[in-house]
Amino acid sequence: FFFFLGMEKLVVCPYKRPNALYRLICFPWSGGGTSQLAQWGKLFSSSTEVYSVMLPGRESRRKEPYVKDMATIVNEFTSVLLKELQEKPFAFFGHSFGSYISFAVALHLKEKYGLEPFHLFVSGAHAPHSEEFIAIKTIPMSDLKDEDVLKHIEILGGTPSELLQNEDMKKHLVLSFKEDLRVLQTLSFEKAERNIPFSCDITCFNGSEDKPYGVEAWHDLTSGDISFYELPGGHFYLLEPSNEIFLTKHITKCIENAGL
């Protein structure tokens, strides 16, 4: 039934470029919509088409029930976009929750179809086999109080304060956050001793005032090159126009230097 959903429902692409050589597929953060990353399309040259993934429970899919596990997201994404991914080279960018989804999707594509992004850009995220990530997986969902979640959302920033004044919006944000955490807890990835899942390059971005992410652990996941960049700001450093320019220019450079 996923095929009837069609691509328009799953990805947003306001700047369509049918003749682009590459695709950059962006995975938004928890509770975050597609609008911000979809707008990146206008910051890239005509060689790159930018997609932003839309998950159930938000924006035009708001009436759909939230997904209960990572496998469902991965399967929906793959069944709808496999043809596009086989057509031309693609890279993934994910921020926070989106980084984990992009990792899970990339892993599935590699294991099942031998397909892999030529570059994985991750932002504000732990490696999925790191101790820090395992700690996230063990948070007891039943103990999570709404006011604690709200406080956490406020500390992270990135949500306009007028939204936090709106009761309905507050409820929706808290619910999205909890549901996304539930999904994260179903991401199971055991790093086997000799098994390096990827061969693509990986770039990790972080905000300088955000909590530290054990970025070193990302080294274990690819035989390709790995690089780290810290940009000024907190968890949502990427919403600052100057950082957005740095990110899109840097990603462009990586895409153009991939020599595909």
TrEMBL record:
One of the GO BP terms on file: medium-chain fatty acid biosynthetic process
Reaction(s) catalysed (UniProt annotation): (9Z)-octadecenoyl-[ACP] + H2O = (9Z)-octadecenoate + holo-[ACP] + H(+)
Molecular function terms from GO: fatty acyl-[ACP] hydrolase activity
EC number: 3.1.2.14
Keywords: Fatty acid biosynthesis, Fatty acid metabolism, Hydrolase, Lipid biosynthesis, Lipid metabolism
Pfam families registered for this protein in UniProt: Thioesterase
Domain (Thioesterase) ranges: 23-244
Keyword Lipid metabolism: yes
PANTHER family referenced in this protein's UniProt entry, alphabetically: S-ACYL FATTY ACID SYNTHASE THIOESTERASE, MEDIUM CHAIN (PTHR11487:SF0), THIOESTERASE (PTHR11487)
Similarity section: Belongs to the thioesterase family.
Protein name: S-acyl fatty acid synthase thioesterase, medium chain
